[in-house]
Amino acid sequence: GEILESPGVTEAQYPENSQNLGWINSYMTPIAEMLKGISPYFGTSICASPGGVIDEILYYTRGFDTILESSILMMSFIIASWLSINYTMNRKAIRDLAAKELGLKTAKYFYATSYEKLQEAAKVIGFPCVVKPLMSSSGKGQSLVREEGELQHAWEYGISGSRGDIKELIIEEFIHFDSEITLLTVTQKDGPTLFCPPIGHVQKGGDYRESFQPAAIAPEHLAEAQRMAAKVTEALTGAGLWGVEFFLSNENGVYFSELSPRPHDTGMVTLAGTQNFNEFELHLRAALGLPIPC
Asked: Are 108 and 173 in contact (CB under 8 A)?
């Protein structure tokens, strides 16, 4: 887009959370102005009001190198810590943290930097298996591979769907789960970690389609998901709302899947009044250190 010649008025979706509306009047820096000529996704404007469009920076800068992206987000007052951004934008970092450092149950997995490495890993994992880019979103580049003959396409699709310059894929065992949930988890500056009622969601072809809250799950599965969510968010540090995803199997229990350090797409259901505060209000309150009545 072009730099605005006159200030643009920003209207708050939730005016009770933003007493002073911000003004969009320029790109952040000359570098941002240069980037906007390369891609419409770069050069995101900033609102002066708390909780304005800061999260949009997180979304639209995912094509950058992770370290550079982390630096940009820090300078833009992003809620989560540098550590959380650096880990969660890369599946390799967050998976190794969860499985190897924290000991959380995850699907078996390997990394592949070439098609030959992918073939070798698939022989160990077995079929069906899931192939994903290390950095992507909304199912882009993800494949369910049912037999060896589909590996070549999965490799090419995964690399083409990868963000940034990372040319490495993760291959996972296929978990025969009964349901999947997002557990919105709120970490506070001075207060205990809070959990929203579990959100059930449905994906088709790797894309999120619908969500509902509360999801009916076994009490022991909920307790285990809360334990895992608390452990991983504590390790990453920061105050705000996290979207922590899990696979649930009646036979094999709870598997940690992924984590986002921000309001989650499946959490949009909270805008329908499914709980006392929606996910954006919770994110803002935790970031500003405001009380969160349960």
From this structure: yes
Give the tens place of pLDDT for each residue, 105-134. 999 999 999 999 999 999 999 999 999 998
Residue 152 phi, psi dihedral angles, 5° rounding: -60, -45
- Write down the pTM of the prediction: 0.72
Give the chain's end-to-end CA distance (angstroms, integer): 42
| Closest by CA position to 203, among listed 150, 266, 268, 132 | 266
**Distance (Å, whole) CA 50 – CA 78:** 10
Percent of the chain clearing pLDDT 70 (strictly above): 68
- Tell me the one-letter amino acid at 30: P
157: nearest Cα among 171, 144, 145, 142: 142
Tell me the CA distances in angstroms from 233 to 74, 118, 146, one per residue in order. 18, 31, 34
